[in-house]
Amino acid sequence: MVTLNLRLLAGLAVLALLAPQTYAGGSTDPLQVKIGNFSFLPATITVPVGAHLVWINQDDVPHVVVGTDANSPIKSPALDTDDRYEVTLTHPGTYAYFCSLHPHMVGTVIVR
Amino acid sequence: MMKNRSERNSHSGPAESSGLSRRQLLKCGAWAGTGLIWAIEGGVPTALLMSETAQAKQTGALTFVQISDSHIGFNKEANPDPAGTLATAIEHSRALNPRPAFMLHTGDVSHLSKPEEFDTAQQIINEFRGDVHYVPGEHDVIGDNGIAFFSRFNGSPGRKWYSFDAHGVHFVALVNVLDLQAGGFGRLGAEQLEWLERDLKGLPASTPIILFTHMPLWAVYPDWGWGTDDALQALGYVRRFGSVTVLNGHIHQVLQKVEGHVSFYSAMSTAFPQPAPGTAPSPGPMKVPADKLRSVLGIRDVVLLDNHTSAKVIDQPLNVT
Fold this sequence. Notes:
The structure holds 2 protein chains of 2 kinds.
Chain A: H1 6-18, E1 31-36, E2 39-41, E3 44-47, E4 52-57, E5 65-67, E6 84-88, E7 93-99, E8 106-111
Parallel strand pairs in A: 1-4, 3-8
Antiparallel strand pairs in A: 1-2, 4-6, 5-7, 7-8
Chain B: H1 2-10, H2 14-18, H3 22-33, E1 41-42, H4 46-59, E2 62-67, H5 82-95, E3 103-105, H6 115-126, E4 132-134, H7 147-153, E5 162-166, E6 169-173, H8 190-200, E7 209-212, H9 231-238, E8 244-248, E9 255-259, E10 262-266, E11 298-304, E12 311-317
Parallel strand pairs in B: 1-12, 2-3, 3-4, 6-7, 7-8, 8-10
Antiparallel strand pairs in B: 2-11, 5-6, 9-10, 11-12
């Protein structure tokens, strides 16, 4: 189920135009972070610049994926069971994030 | 695990009912020694409930009811009909004798903070036909930091935490689900803590205090995030009072603890149970056989006797009428 709001979709469309179109391995398949048992799996993921990243909630409760930094591009709406949140990270760096509902759930995306 | 839980609910004595350790029992003894009777009952038999309420009737005590974690909008296997179980909880709350003076809802009214979920919950809870004092859970503040919740249930978007007095008891509603920090637990925040310190200032130490909030104010189980980062500061402000009761939800099960003059009680949900700390890979909705569900959901009747020497907390499952 797609849960992106319109603003996010518009943002992603712009990002898609700006982002490099070549991905690691030549694949456009999104890299996945699974949310299960109140954890992010993998807790740390390294992706190339411009990679498409998706979080999929497999828990029976909602989670909200939010960057620790206030300016982080990672900011999902509430993800109910089986909901997905997609983002394309276009700048290298280390992006710490957590679940704003269950803040002991933390994860990191490394973009390089 | 469920077997243990239902056994716990069927026991009558305080010691058996909570599976207390010797150390906890000693604490309870100390508590009773100071004049406050330990009287929590995990699913107390009706006969005892009647005797307690009869006593309350005779002394003109204050009684109120706590419900929690109604999760309207949840639709998974653990309970496909949380509206139905909430309606039962409200019926049971209305049927308590003596009738509770008011109700506390300790949060997660909704599952996803959706207006239609708040609507449904409000319509069902209105059937209580009495005052209801709310605090939000983390499920109630998604996307707007609770503005819709506070507007609807607390009367204005800016009325987040508050206090009121009833029957000589000072009640304080605390919010520990806003602006949560990565790697942390529940959080009260500096602004609320300053307010709490001011709110309590000037009250005689003999004033009974009841704090109610969503997440536990004690570290129930940090691995699952079941605690509140800055609870110690809040508890510091109530330490001088002779009788402090803390009521919370969030963990969907009855747990209790006594620390000095402060007693903590976590309540059942009206929607679905969660596993006991550490007994599952993670917290979350726990599936039980459909015919057992109502034995692990419930309401909490709190009786405060006139002389304030006894606070009785009676957890009553939904399958007990």
